[in-house]
Amino acid sequence: MLKTALKPRWIAGLVFALLLSGVFVLLSQWQFGRSTQSETPVDPSVEQVKPLTGVLQPGAFFPGAVADQMVSAKGSYDPSKQVLVEGRLLEGQKGYWVVTAFAVDGAPVLKGAAASPKTWIPVARGWIADPSQASPPPSGTIELTGRLLPTEAPVPNVDAGAGRASAVSVAELINVWNVSSYPGFVAATSEVSSGKSLALPQQLKPLNIPAQPANQQINWLNLFYSVEWVVFAGFALYIWWRMVADDYRRSLEDDEPDEDDDFLPENLPAITDPEQVKP
């Protein structure tokens, strides 16, 4: 069969089948890429700084529409309400987020037995490599700017220890700090005091968290098409192999002697004995 496959026409057919299969594979990759593309790009309006008090309300659910929104707030930090959230990466290195409670001026005050006189929000001020590098927040009235993010889920069955937290979880932190809080936190980008921008301590690295694109959704129709093109690519090679196999079988049939040829006069044995022709 190899001899048949090496015929010029079948070599040319193989080249054509491979080219066709390559085109089908490229189409499959294109369809697969379309099946996982984000339907909604990042909204540029989230980079416009808006007042926190006008974007989010305490005591309510965190609406997904305000996630990643750049916000500003005026208030003060409480150095006694600061935790380190472990297991945070920065440029491939594992370390800690420094998260401090921030009392928001002008925020609605919640009512109830467990409500505090002020409304607070956790602020992730930066990243440190070692707990010993943590420093207290700036004092006095601070004008804060940062990216608003939804609360994280606490890690179950994990006791992070004193001054630590398993996640930036509002539900976990309000029980530690005994305060009323917004249902989210702010990743700080700048702090201003008395009109002057405050520089972070040398060991405290800025987070610089960008706006996140919309969650990717799978388009099952495009995914089906991508699989279909792969099948077509294999089918093109199968058709070539089948045509070569059929040509090989025909060549074998042409080489086989015809059974009727055994009864031709020239193939009959010569009669040399006269007795053999007597009736």
Draw up the topology in text.
Elements: H1 2-5, H2 8-35, E1 50-51, H3 52-55, E2 70-90, E3 93-104, E4 119-128, E5 142-150, E6 164-165, H4 170-177, E7 180-181, E8 184-193, E9 196-197, H5 220-255
Parallel strand pairs: 1-2, 2-6, 4-7, 4-8
Antiparallel strand pairs: 2-3, 2-5, 3-4, 5-8, 8-9
Helix pairs in contact: 2-5
How would you characterize the overall build of this protein?
The chain has 279 residues and is of the alpha/beta class. 29% of the residues lie in helices and 25% in strands. It is built from five helices and nine strands, in the order ααβαβββββαβββα. It has a five-stranded mixed β-barrel. β1, α3 and β2 form a beta-alpha-beta unit. α2 runs antiparallel to α5. The longest helix is centred in the last third of the chain and has 36 residues. It starts with a helix and ends in a 24-residue tail after the last helix. The model has no long low-confidence stretch (mean pLDDT 85).
Brief account:
This protein has 279 residues and is an alpha/beta fold. It has five helices and nine strands; from the N terminus they run ααβαβββββαβββα.
Strand order of the largest sheet: 2-3-4-8-5
Main structural class: alpha/beta
How many helical elements? 5
User: What helical percentage do the residues reach?
Assistant: 25-40%
Radius of gyration: 39 Å
Please describe the biggest sheet, giving its number of strands, its sense, and whether it closes into a barrel: 5 strands, mixed, barrel
Shape: elongated
Order of helices and strands: HHEHEEEEEHEEEH
Strand content: 25-35%
